[in-house]
Amino acid sequence: MACQAAAAGECRNLTLGWFSYVKLLHRHIGQLLVVGFGGTTVSAELRALAREWDLGGVILFGRNIEAPEQVAELAFETQDLARDVPLWVSVDQEGGRVARLRAPFTEWPPMGGLGRCRDTGLAERFAAALADELSAVGVTLDFAPVLDVQNEAADPVIGDRALSSDPDEVGRLGGVIIETLQRNGVAACAKHFPGHGDTRADSHHELPVVEHPPERLREHEMAPFRAAIAADVAAVMTAHVLYPALDDEQPATLSRTIVDEVLRGELGHEGLVVTDDLDMGAITASHTVGQAAVRALDAGCDTVLVCGDSIERHAAVIEALIHAVETNELDGRLIERAQVRQQRVKARFMGGEFPRRPLSGKALRARLGTGLHQAVALEIARA
Predict the structure, then answer these.
(1) Residue 331 annotated as catalytic
(2) Residue 276 annotated to the active site
(3) Phi and psi of 157, rounded to 5°?
(4) Where are the domains of the chain?
(5) Which pLDDT tens digit goes with each residue over 180-216?
């Protein structure tokens, strides 16, 4: 009887332990998501999503931006959604075609111009100015720089977003941009691993395929990412591209071979691995966003980027992740490791401090589009 009682007690403890784990999973699973949303303020729906599941961060688009003061207030308001860990306030601010923050922010030329200058001093001045303007409005993560190697014959989805057609030059200038952004308090994200520059299709609409052999991929496409990792980049974004020489079934975002074995094991990246937007056609043609999120985390990604503004879809993604863990489709230890990485990288850039009231009025405008910043932009543009 004593043995039976002991066994019953052990079983009850295990049950309680599992219940506690599931409760914790439900409470914090959203930390692995960075989401888009509609409007220029934090909506009741977004607030409810964060209250139910927590959130890793938000990404800002043109639909969220009216004026610098409003962006700064929105970033401050967003941090009020945090529980124990602050949220990323992120943006795609590369320069050229991909820039969400327009005048009176400095409007940066395409990075191809910076690559033609081949000037690390100019790259440092650019990144310092960019970081100053982003931090002035509360942006903590910039999905930049692009470290894809340009191929003039390829589809222009990358084109002049790339620094150069020379992988060494991309790595050299990209490393300076990363170090400078991060030294000035803004986390950088190198993209799109293992290289999107030689694709003929746009992954926003369909799945591109890069047929290069593994030796070429390692020596050419991946070379700038080695430089980024050496610069201690906070995050690396994966490409929604199929590389048959590395994995003939799954695009990089969903490939354990590419994410876990190559990016982490071979190249030694210890920071975050972020998916490109899972709402893109290269992924949604064959997966629901929830299915893709499960597969991306199973491959070794830490952060799922869902840029659409549907709060219902974001909730469905979170529910898909919880279901996958509960049914053992997704190893809960992967979730735990991803959360630990999130906390470690966020502590590096945001620490434990509560956000301060944002700048406004003349104090804010004095940080944006300054004469010094415009002079840097002009120097890049002249190239």
Answers:
(1) no
(2) yes
(3) -60, -30
(4) 26-381
(5) 999 999 999 999 999 998 888 788 889 999 999 999 9
